[in-house]
Design goal:
seven-stranded mixed sheet, 4 helices, 28% helix, globular, alpha+beta, 7 strands
């Protein structure tokens, strides 16, 4: 298993992950293409690849982060259902944290659906704390829980 920077050649895999994992909240193929082409300032796309038997690996997850000055935002993290619980989300998050710190960020923010108990537990176990809620944030009217991870002491 490995995590690497994504590029234009990953468009089909990332767009498919958006649809499969994020449904109505998936980003359009055009927006993903622009991000992968480097046309969206401050944004980095990462992909997780599985090492499969007989070379049957492939992209099984992706993350998108925006790093601006002292604040980083994890905009996306998704792993295909068949590859969940394999450490891919952890590896993606660790790479986002490392790149955020390297970019000078003091904190990492993200939003999670309040009804996504698995994601809330995942982030809590990694030191994220709730700092706010955004009512009707998602297309279906669900509330988002805003989480923060300090990246530097005193944040």
């Amino acid at each position: 298993m490995s995590v690497r920077a994504a590029g234009p050649d990953d468009l089909d895999a990332v767009a498919a992950l958006e649809e499969e994992c994020l449904g109505a909240d998936a980003w359009s193929r055009g927006l993903v293409a622009a991000g992968l082409a480097g046309e969206v300032p401050t944004v980095v796309y990462l992909v997780a690849e599985a090492d499969g038997a007989g070379g049957a690996g492939g992209v099984v997850g992706h993350a998108v982060a925006s790093i601006v000055a002292d604040v980083a935002e994890l905009q996306r993290i998704a792993v295909t259902p068949a590859a969940r619980r394999g450490g891919h989300a952890t590896d993606l998050l660790e790479e986002v944290v490392a790149r955020s710190r390297a970019g000078g960020a003091e904190r990492l923010l993200l939003e999670v659906r309040e009804d996504n108990a698995g994601a809330l537990a995942f982030y809590a176990a990694r030191g994220f704390v709730e700092v706010d809620r955004r009512r009707r944030y998602y297309r279906d009217g669900a509330t988002a829980v805003v989480l923060r991870l300090p990246l530097r002491k005193g944040c």
